[in-house]
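User: quick one - fold this with zinc ion bound?
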Amino acid sequence: MNVLGIETSCDETSAALVKDGKKILSNVIFSQNPMHARFRGIVPEIASRAHVEKINGVLEKAIGNERVDALAVTVGPGLIGSLLVGKMAAQALAWVWEKPIVGVNHLEAHLFANALENPGLEPPFLGLIVSGGHTDLVIVQDYGRYRVIGRTRDDAAGESYDKVANLLKLGYPGGPAVDLLAQQGDPGAVPFPKPFLQGSWDFSFSGLKTAVLYYLRKNKKVRVADVCASFQNSVVSVLTAKAVSAAKTFKLGKISVGGGVAANSELRKRFQSEAKKHGLEVYLPSKSLCTDNAAMVAALGFHKLKRQKTAAAALKSLEVDPSLPIRNWE
Ligand code: KG4
Ligand code: ZN
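Assistant: Sure. C-alpha coordinates for the protein plus zinc ion:
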Protein backbone atom coordinates (compact mmCIF):
# COMPACT_ATOMS: atom_id res chain seq x y z
CA MET A 1 0.00 0.00 0.00
CA ASN A 2 1.47 3.35 -1.10
CA VAL A 3 0.74 6.12 1.40
CA LEU A 4 1.22 9.75 0.38
CA GLY A 5 2.45 11.74 3.38
CA ILE A 6 2.10 15.51 3.63
CA GLU A 7 3.95 17.63 6.19
CA THR A 8 3.56 21.42 6.53
CA SER A 9 3.49 21.93 10.31
CA CYS A 10 6.37 24.37 10.53
CA ASP A 11 8.86 25.63 7.93
CA GLU A 12 9.37 22.60 5.72
CA THR A 13 6.98 21.84 2.87
CA SER A 14 7.26 18.11 2.34
CA ALA A 15 5.49 15.28 0.53
CA ALA A 16 6.56 11.64 0.42
CA LEU A 17 5.41 8.33 -0.92
CA VAL A 18 6.08 5.34 1.34
CA LYS A 19 5.25 1.71 0.55
CA ASP A 20 3.80 -0.42 3.39
CA GLY A 21 5.09 1.95 6.06
CA LYS A 22 8.71 0.97 5.36
CA LYS A 23 10.04 1.67 1.88
CA ILE A 24 10.59 5.31 0.89
CA LEU A 25 9.67 5.76 -2.78
CA SER A 26 10.13 9.54 -2.60
CA ASN A 27 10.68 12.15 0.11
CA VAL A 28 10.64 15.70 -1.26
CA ILE A 29 11.48 18.45 1.24
CA PHE A 30 11.45 22.18 0.52
CA SER A 31 13.10 23.96 3.44
CA GLN A 32 12.14 27.58 4.07
CA ASN A 33 15.13 28.16 6.37
CA PRO A 34 16.73 30.88 4.19
CA MET A 35 13.40 32.77 4.08
CA HIS A 36 13.28 33.06 7.88
CA ALA A 37 17.00 33.48 8.56
CA ARG A 38 17.06 37.27 8.44
CA PHE A 39 14.32 37.39 11.10
CA ARG A 40 16.34 34.95 13.29
CA GLY A 41 13.26 32.79 13.77
CA ILE A 42 10.18 31.50 11.97
CA VAL A 43 7.67 34.12 10.82
CA PRO A 44 4.30 32.28 10.69
CA GLU A 45 2.85 34.45 7.91
CA ILE A 46 5.87 33.87 5.66
CA ALA A 47 5.73 30.15 6.45
CA SER A 48 2.09 29.67 5.48
CA ARG A 49 2.45 31.71 2.29
CA ALA A 50 5.49 29.72 1.25
CA HIS A 51 3.61 26.45 1.87
CA VAL A 52 0.80 27.67 -0.41
CA GLU A 53 3.31 28.52 -3.13
CA LYS A 54 5.31 25.30 -2.89
CA ILE A 55 2.85 22.56 -2.01
CA ASN A 56 1.67 21.71 -5.55
CA GLY A 57 5.18 21.41 -6.97
CA VAL A 58 6.39 19.36 -4.01
CA LEU A 59 3.37 17.03 -4.35
CA GLU A 60 3.85 16.53 -8.09
CA LYS A 61 7.50 15.69 -7.59
CA ALA A 62 6.77 13.25 -4.75
CA ILE A 63 3.99 11.41 -6.57
CA GLY A 64 5.62 11.15 -10.00
CA ASN A 65 3.92 8.33 -11.89
CA GLU A 66 3.30 6.18 -8.83
CA ARG A 67 -0.03 4.96 -7.51
CA VAL A 68 -1.42 6.50 -4.31
CA ASP A 69 -3.58 4.20 -2.17
CA ALA A 70 -4.10 6.42 0.88
CA LEU A 71 -3.07 9.74 2.40
CA ALA A 72 -1.60 10.81 5.74
CA VAL A 73 -1.24 14.42 6.79
CA THR A 74 0.23 16.17 9.83
CA VAL A 75 -2.63 17.76 11.80
CA GLY A 76 -0.57 19.11 14.74
CA PRO A 77 1.20 20.33 16.69
CA GLY A 78 2.48 23.26 14.66
CA LEU A 79 1.59 26.64 13.22
CA ILE A 80 -2.11 26.88 12.45
CA GLY A 81 -1.73 28.63 9.07
CA SER A 82 0.92 26.14 7.98
CA LEU A 83 -1.00 23.08 9.16
CA LEU A 84 -4.10 24.22 7.28
CA VAL A 85 -2.26 24.31 3.94
CA GLY A 86 -1.26 20.65 4.24
CA LYS A 87 -4.65 19.59 5.50
CA MET A 88 -6.53 21.33 2.67
CA ALA A 89 -4.22 19.84 0.03
CA ALA A 90 -4.53 16.35 1.50
CA GLN A 91 -8.29 16.54 1.85
CA ALA A 92 -8.74 17.82 -1.69
CA LEU A 93 -6.71 14.91 -3.10
CA ALA A 94 -8.49 12.34 -0.92
CA TRP A 95 -11.82 13.76 -2.06
CA VAL A 96 -10.97 13.71 -5.80
CA TRP A 97 -9.24 10.31 -5.74
CA GLU A 98 -11.75 8.80 -3.27
CA LYS A 99 -8.93 7.45 -1.10
CA PRO A 100 -8.77 6.99 2.67
CA ILE A 101 -7.03 9.70 4.66
CA VAL A 102 -5.69 9.88 8.19
CA GLY A 103 -4.43 12.74 10.37
CA VAL A 104 -1.05 12.18 12.04
CA ASN A 105 0.57 13.76 15.10
CA HIS A 106 3.92 15.28 14.06
CA LEU A 107 5.65 14.26 17.31
CA GLU A 108 4.52 10.65 17.06
CA ALA A 109 5.87 10.63 13.51
CA HIS A 110 9.31 11.78 14.80
CA LEU A 111 9.24 8.83 17.25
CA PHE A 112 8.74 6.31 14.45
CA ALA A 113 11.09 7.86 11.84
CA ASN A 114 13.69 5.26 12.82
CA ALA A 115 11.44 2.43 11.67
CA LEU A 116 11.95 3.56 8.06
CA GLU A 117 15.61 2.58 8.20
CA ASN A 118 15.26 -0.22 10.74
CA PRO A 119 12.30 -2.34 9.65
CA GLY A 120 12.84 -4.52 12.73
CA LEU A 121 12.20 -1.65 15.14
CA GLU A 122 8.87 -2.33 16.79
CA PRO A 123 7.41 -1.08 20.08
CA PRO A 124 7.85 -1.29 23.01
CA PHE A 125 10.69 1.23 23.20
CA LEU A 126 11.63 4.45 24.92
CA GLY A 127 11.16 7.46 22.65
CA LEU A 128 13.02 10.74 22.97
CA ILE A 129 11.79 13.66 20.85
CA VAL A 130 14.25 16.53 20.58
CA SER A 131 12.96 19.13 18.14
CA GLY A 132 12.71 22.89 17.83
CA GLY A 133 9.50 23.04 19.85
CA HIS A 134 9.49 19.88 21.95
CA THR A 135 11.59 17.73 24.26
CA ASP A 136 9.58 14.69 25.32
CA LEU A 137 10.40 11.34 26.91
CA VAL A 138 7.75 8.83 25.89
CA ILE A 139 7.18 5.19 26.71
CA VAL A 140 5.94 3.77 23.41
CA GLN A 141 4.04 0.63 24.41
CA ASP A 142 2.65 -0.01 20.94
CA TYR A 143 1.56 1.91 17.85
CA GLY A 144 -0.88 4.47 19.25
CA ARG A 145 -0.21 3.53 22.89
CA TYR A 146 1.91 6.11 24.67
CA ARG A 147 2.85 7.33 28.12
CA VAL A 148 4.58 10.70 28.14
CA ILE A 149 6.78 10.62 31.27
CA GLY A 150 8.75 13.83 30.81
CA ARG A 151 8.65 17.06 28.86
CA THR A 152 10.37 20.42 28.85
CA ARG A 153 9.20 22.95 31.41
CA ASP A 154 10.46 25.87 29.32
CA ASP A 155 12.77 25.89 26.27
CA ALA A 156 12.95 22.83 24.02
CA ALA A 157 16.39 21.38 23.23
CA GLY A 158 16.40 22.78 19.66
CA GLU A 159 15.08 26.10 20.89
CA SER A 160 18.01 26.39 23.33
CA TYR A 161 20.44 25.74 20.44
CA ASP A 162 18.69 28.42 18.38
CA LYS A 163 18.74 30.94 21.24
CA VAL A 164 22.40 30.35 22.09
CA ALA A 165 23.29 30.61 18.39
CA ASN A 166 21.43 33.91 18.37
CA LEU A 167 23.48 35.18 21.34
CA LEU A 168 26.62 34.20 19.44
CA LYS A 169 25.30 35.72 16.18
CA LEU A 170 25.57 32.42 14.31
CA GLY A 171 22.37 32.75 12.28
CA TYR A 172 19.17 30.68 12.10
CA PRO A 173 18.59 27.76 12.57
CA GLY A 174 21.30 27.67 15.20
CA GLY A 175 21.65 23.94 15.86
CA PRO A 176 23.78 23.01 12.84
CA ALA A 177 26.08 26.06 13.32
CA VAL A 178 26.66 25.35 17.03
CA ASP A 179 27.23 21.66 16.21
CA LEU A 180 29.91 22.53 13.64
CA LEU A 181 31.77 25.07 15.80
CA ALA A 182 31.61 22.83 18.88
CA GLN A 183 33.71 20.27 17.02
CA GLN A 184 36.67 22.65 17.31
CA GLY A 185 36.01 23.60 20.94
CA ASP A 186 36.77 22.26 24.41
CA PRO A 187 33.62 20.88 26.09
CA GLY A 188 35.23 21.39 29.50
CA ALA A 189 36.20 25.04 28.91
CA VAL A 190 33.18 26.64 30.64
CA PRO A 191 31.37 24.83 33.50
CA PHE A 192 27.81 25.63 32.40
CA PRO A 193 25.05 24.06 34.55
CA LYS A 194 23.70 20.63 33.64
CA PRO A 195 19.98 20.80 34.50
CA PHE A 196 19.27 17.17 35.42
CA LEU A 197 16.14 17.97 37.53
CA GLN A 198 16.79 14.99 39.79
CA GLY A 199 13.68 13.03 40.70
CA SER A 200 11.76 14.10 37.60
CA TRP A 201 11.85 13.02 33.96
CA ASP A 202 11.17 16.61 32.86
CA PHE A 203 13.69 18.92 31.19
CA SER A 204 14.54 22.61 31.58
CA PHE A 205 17.01 24.36 29.30
CA SER A 206 16.13 28.02 29.81
CA GLY A 207 18.51 28.48 32.79
CA LEU A 208 21.36 27.05 30.73
CA LYS A 209 20.70 29.59 27.98
CA THR A 210 20.68 32.37 30.60
CA ALA A 211 24.00 31.07 31.97
CA VAL A 212 25.47 31.39 28.47
CA LEU A 213 24.08 34.95 28.23
CA TYR A 214 25.63 35.97 31.58
CA TYR A 215 28.93 34.34 30.65
CA LEU A 216 29.04 36.33 27.39
CA ARG A 217 28.16 39.58 29.20
CA LYS A 218 30.91 39.07 31.76
CA ASN A 219 33.61 37.85 29.41
CA LYS A 220 34.23 40.02 26.39
CA LYS A 221 36.95 37.90 24.81
CA VAL A 222 35.67 34.35 24.49
CA ARG A 223 36.48 31.46 22.20
CA VAL A 224 33.12 30.92 20.49
CA ALA A 225 33.99 27.30 19.73
CA ASP A 226 34.60 26.66 23.45
CA VAL A 227 31.27 28.25 24.41
CA CYS A 228 29.49 26.09 21.80
CA ALA A 229 31.22 22.89 22.93
CA SER A 230 30.59 23.59 26.64
CA PHE A 231 26.92 24.48 26.10
CA GLN A 232 26.45 21.41 23.91
CA ASN A 233 28.15 19.24 26.52
CA SER A 234 25.49 20.30 29.06
CA VAL A 235 22.54 19.66 26.72
CA VAL A 236 23.81 16.32 25.46
CA SER A 237 24.81 15.09 28.95
CA VAL A 238 21.29 15.76 30.25
CA LEU A 239 19.51 14.23 27.26
CA THR A 240 21.56 11.02 27.18
CA ALA A 241 21.64 10.51 30.96
CA LYS A 242 17.89 10.92 31.37
CA ALA A 243 16.99 8.76 28.37
CA VAL A 244 19.32 5.94 29.44
CA SER A 245 18.09 6.14 33.03
CA ALA A 246 14.43 6.06 31.91
CA ALA A 247 15.05 3.07 29.61
CA LYS A 248 16.61 1.16 32.51
CA THR A 249 13.97 2.21 35.05
CA PHE A 250 11.10 1.14 32.78
CA LYS A 251 12.96 -1.95 31.54
CA LEU A 252 12.95 -0.93 27.88
CA GLY A 253 15.89 -2.29 25.89
CA LYS A 254 15.55 0.12 22.97
CA ILE A 255 15.73 3.91 22.67
CA SER A 256 14.43 5.67 19.55
CA VAL A 257 15.56 9.29 19.20
CA GLY A 258 13.87 11.67 16.75
CA GLY A 259 13.58 15.36 15.84
CA GLY A 260 16.01 17.96 14.51
CA VAL A 261 18.47 17.77 17.43
CA ALA A 262 18.90 14.02 16.79
CA ALA A 263 21.07 15.19 13.85
CA ASN A 264 23.59 16.62 16.35
CA SER A 265 26.94 14.90 15.98
CA GLU A 266 27.88 14.95 19.68
CA LEU A 267 24.44 13.67 20.72
CA ARG A 268 24.76 10.80 18.24
CA LYS A 269 28.23 9.86 19.50
CA ARG A 270 27.25 10.07 23.14
CA PHE A 271 24.04 8.07 22.68
CA GLN A 272 25.92 5.33 20.88
CA SER A 273 28.63 5.04 23.54
CA GLU A 274 26.21 5.28 26.50
CA ALA A 275 23.86 2.71 24.98
CA LYS A 276 26.76 0.32 24.48
CA LYS A 277 27.89 0.82 28.08
CA HIS A 278 24.42 0.00 29.39
CA GLY A 279 23.56 -2.80 26.97
CA LEU A 280 20.79 -0.85 25.24
CA GLU A 281 19.98 -0.56 21.54
CA VAL A 282 19.79 3.03 20.31
CA TYR A 283 18.23 4.18 17.04
CA LEU A 284 19.07 7.52 15.40
CA PRO A 285 17.59 8.43 12.01
CA SER A 286 19.87 9.51 9.18
CA LYS A 287 20.04 13.31 9.11
CA SER A 288 17.34 13.91 6.49
CA LEU A 289 14.87 11.92 8.60
CA CYS A 290 15.75 13.78 11.83
CA THR A 291 14.42 17.14 10.67
CA ASP A 292 10.88 17.59 9.40
CA ASN A 293 9.91 15.33 6.51
CA ALA A 294 6.77 13.71 5.12
CA ALA A 295 8.22 10.17 4.92
CA MET A 296 7.82 9.76 8.68
CA VAL A 297 4.24 11.02 8.40
CA ALA A 298 3.40 8.53 5.64
CA ALA A 299 5.06 5.68 7.56
CA LEU A 300 3.11 6.29 10.75
CA GLY A 301 -0.02 6.97 8.70
CA PHE A 302 0.22 3.45 7.25
CA HIS A 303 0.10 1.91 10.74
CA LYS A 304 -2.70 4.22 11.82
CA LEU A 305 -4.79 3.41 8.74
CA LYS A 306 -4.36 -0.30 9.46
CA ARG A 307 -5.64 0.14 13.00
CA GLN A 308 -8.23 2.84 12.48
CA LYS A 309 -11.53 1.70 11.04
CA THR A 310 -12.83 5.21 10.55
CA ALA A 311 -10.28 6.42 7.98
CA ALA A 312 -12.85 7.18 5.28
CA ALA A 313 -14.96 9.19 7.71
CA ALA A 314 -11.86 11.24 8.58
CA LEU A 315 -12.35 13.20 5.37
CA LYS A 316 -15.17 15.08 7.04
CA SER A 317 -13.72 15.26 10.54
CA LEU A 318 -10.03 15.99 9.94
CA GLU A 319 -9.24 18.86 12.30
CA VAL A 320 -5.90 20.58 12.79
CA ASP A 321 -4.78 21.42 16.33
CA PRO A 322 -1.73 23.69 16.88
CA SER A 323 -1.13 22.19 20.34
CA LEU A 324 -2.14 18.61 19.63
CA PRO A 325 -0.87 16.41 22.49
CA ILE A 326 0.57 12.92 22.10
CA ARG A 327 -2.39 10.73 22.97
CA ASN A 328 -3.58 7.18 22.49
CA TRP A 329 -5.40 6.26 19.29
CA GLU A 330 -9.06 5.41 19.59
O1 KG4 B 1 12.30 18.54 14.16
P1 KG4 B 1 12.66 19.84 13.55
O2 KG4 B 1 13.14 19.85 12.12
O3 KG4 B 1 11.48 20.86 13.61
C1 KG4 B 1 10.56 20.88 14.65
O4 KG4 B 1 9.65 20.02 14.65
O5 KG4 B 1 10.76 21.74 15.54
O6 KG4 B 1 13.79 20.49 14.51
C2 KG4 B 1 14.36 21.73 14.26
C3 KG4 B 1 15.36 22.03 15.37
C4 KG4 B 1 15.94 23.44 15.32
O7 KG4 B 1 15.85 24.02 16.60
C5 KG4 B 1 17.39 23.23 14.91
O8 KG4 B 1 18.28 24.21 15.41
C6 KG4 B 1 17.68 21.86 15.50
O9 KG4 B 1 16.48 21.14 15.28
N1 KG4 B 1 18.81 21.18 14.85
C7 KG4 B 1 19.96 20.87 15.48
C8 KG4 B 1 20.81 20.28 14.51
N2 KG4 B 1 20.14 20.25 13.31
C9 KG4 B 1 18.91 20.80 13.54
N3 KG4 B 1 20.35 21.04 16.77
C10 KG4 B 1 21.59 20.63 17.10
N4 KG4 B 1 22.46 20.08 16.23
C11 KG4 B 1 22.12 19.88 14.94
N5 KG4 B 1 23.00 19.33 14.08
ZN1 ZN C 1 9.60 18.29 13.83
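One thing worth noting: The CA atoms of residues 234 and 261 lie 14 Å apart.
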